[in-house]
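Handoff note, outgoing to incoming analyst
You'll be picking up this chain. Sequence as last confirmed:
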Amino acid sequence: MTHLYAGPADEFSHLRRQLYRLLDAAAAGAPPARATTWTPPADVAVSDTNVIISLELAGMERDQIEVAVEGRTLTVSGHRSNPGNGSAEQTLLTEWPVGHFARSFALGWEVDPARVRASLSDGVLEIRIARKDPARRADGGEQDAHIRA
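Most recent structure output, in case you need it:
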């Protein structure tokens, strides 16, 4: 069945159906269904000396995040719990993605794990990857700064 967009009234009707489903599930004592994996948004920047990858990880602590380097691939993974867990209130709606995530970036060169630095501040994980040679590769050509997410 093909559903055509009919304008704002259609959006409100869809929202109303979702809300009724949520309230029915809460009244029955069933937890709302939600995805168990998610993908954090990322920004990538390149300077003469570093590649900087920033990921939005609001509400997470350092011990919930893992940064791994293998060859030409950098992987960030972790698990974010429901922020309402442990409180006396019953959560009716949570829009924050929770559960496991993993995000890999294919780099254009081998990465030395000793030259990777990560910091978490204000919900943003910033990873700085030092480029092997800021100006030239061993063969004299320009260093490839290609990154594929």
